[in-house]
Amino acid sequence: MKIKYLLKGLLKSVPGVEYVYNFHKETGGTDNASYCYTVWMRHLMMAWENGYQRIPASIAELGPGDSLGIGLSALLTGAEKYYALDVIRYSNTERNLLVFEELVKLFKAKAAPSDTEFPNMRPKLPQLHFPAHILTDEKLEKLLDEKRLDRIRSSIRACGQGQPLQEDSMILYEVPWTDASVIRQESVDMIISQAVLQHVNDLPGTYRSMNAWLKKDGIMSHNIDLKSMGSSDHWYGHWTYSELEWKIVKGRKKYLINREPYSVHMRLADESGFKVVKEIKDIQALPDRNQFSGQYRKMKEEDMTISSLFMQAVKTRLLILFNCIVFAGEHYNVYSLSTIV
Ligand SMILES: C[S@@+](CC[C@H](N)C(=O)[O-])C[C@H]1O[C@@H](n2cnc3c(N)ncnc32)[C@H](O)[C@@H]1O
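Above: inputs. Below: predicted complex with S-adenosylmethionine.
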């Protein structure tokens, strides 16, 4: 039943309605410390399995959402710098501090990342115990030293005040981030995102930015939900709307989903200088392609069945980005162009 979603969208298209009804109140998920802990452990443990056997010293996260808890978990496992890039400032200092204290308890207890508490979380973990082979007792003792914890607490407070990244600060929270220059080129060991890349409006530009940020021997790790995410009764329903209908469903929201299927992520990763080293997909029964609209009707069968993708990729080459500013009437747009070196 598309009509329900079209009507909802129409309501959300009324000018000014965003001031009455807050479309982007919360994301759900990272307000819970156990969720953040489990997400981070997944990315870290899977990277380890895929040959990245060290603790990343610097990490960048796209779309942290309600709290910075996923990146704070990375700091607790040994990272010294955490770049959190979002388009809406969902998190605040108070919540970040609360989540942080809960995370410290989980690490002190050497809790096993949970698969049962979050049954929909992907990927499923191969092992459900605390990764003592990665975080040895000796390492944990140093990482959870009170002085280090206080340094993280101070960084949480500082980033909440919107201060630029100081030399000794461990966190940069940039909202909204608009171009790749927000992070120094080739300075990040690991880039992660959980349930974010399906929302990003400029997907090619984001893949190119990730290429620019990642160090030569770095790794990126993404969980991408390719379902309709509340825009339809069916998991594949987002591909059944025409362009006009989709504009209506989106209303005045800053982002909804970009509707890009699995193969587009694979192509963009490749074109942006990455080699995919791990893919875990959720496969559904093939829907009837006659329900799909326009370009989506021509999608490959494979794309029509993949509802979720966990992907880890390493960098194969560096793209050089140029920012090209184009004036149109009173506005200007920044386009990122790239070349391979
Ligand atoms: C479904 S929420 C996921 C939040 C969190 N990662 C989690 O696991 O709960 C999607 C997040 O992606 C963010 N987002 C959307 N477009 C983005 C972009 N272009 N760059 C970075 N974050 C973006 C949203 O603001 C939101 O925080």
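The chain has eleven helices and nine strands.
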